[in-house]
Amino acid sequence: MPARKDPDASISVPCFYGAELRFKREEAGLTLEQLAEGSFRGISFLSQIERGERRMPVDLARHVDERLGTDGFFQRRCDDVAKARQVGHAWYFADVPEMEKQALTLEEWAPTGVPGLLQTGAYFRGRMQYVAPDVPPEVVEERVKARVARADLWERADRPTYWGILKESTFRRTPLPPAVMAEQVQHIVDVIRSSRSVLQVIPESHPWAPLDFAMAKIMTFADAPPTVYTEGDFTGQIVDFPPQVREYRYRYDLLRAVALPPEASLELLEDAARDYRHAAQQRD
Length: 284
Description:
By secondary structure, the chain is an alpha/beta fold. 50% of the residues lie in helices and 12% in strands. A 6-stranded mixed beta sheet has the order 3-2-1-4-5-6, with helices on both faces.
């Protein structure tokens, strides 16, 4: 069994909060199961809070304070943790960056855009101009900074094993300038090759695919059940109900079956990058 990943309390406020929770629980001589009993929350959910991956709901914080005799500490600090993890991210996505860092494997499907972990700042900034033109420039830059910061994951020695799938149309059919897309597509190739990750492309000749209308990020962990994150325009959801997770797993495997092989996919991306560089030079 893989060794458990203890939270590094120095990384962030959520990790400090989770480390303190684990310390107080173990000091009280309680297992996760014993602490979760009567809270209407699962053991895996509590474990993810201890690792700094999930937010502590107020009702659970109240339960924890009562069981551990911590005089309201965890309830008082709920808002602090939520604010710390939400900087630059939508409220429904706030838990995901820490979960990505703690994952053993990370598989994602992006039917409408380049996956966030593979985006350049220029691509994300340009995309925001089209999908959210009402967002103030300073907020856009805050979000760009948070999006790019997630890419620090690629530099970690203990980064998760990554497997991505995207549609060819996400990098072929775009209103963004050729120079921006040349940089973006080449960036994808460079990251995948340098990290020895896997990426597949579903070609435009295959117009329909499983999970065609929603992105999916499947994460597995050393000491917690697998989890799926899926997202729409104004909301996101972390799915950990086993039957639903298995359904996402099955649909993702179907996507693999209809996608191009990994090397052919990278060659397609390299061709697209060359086309964009040529188009950019023609504009100059």
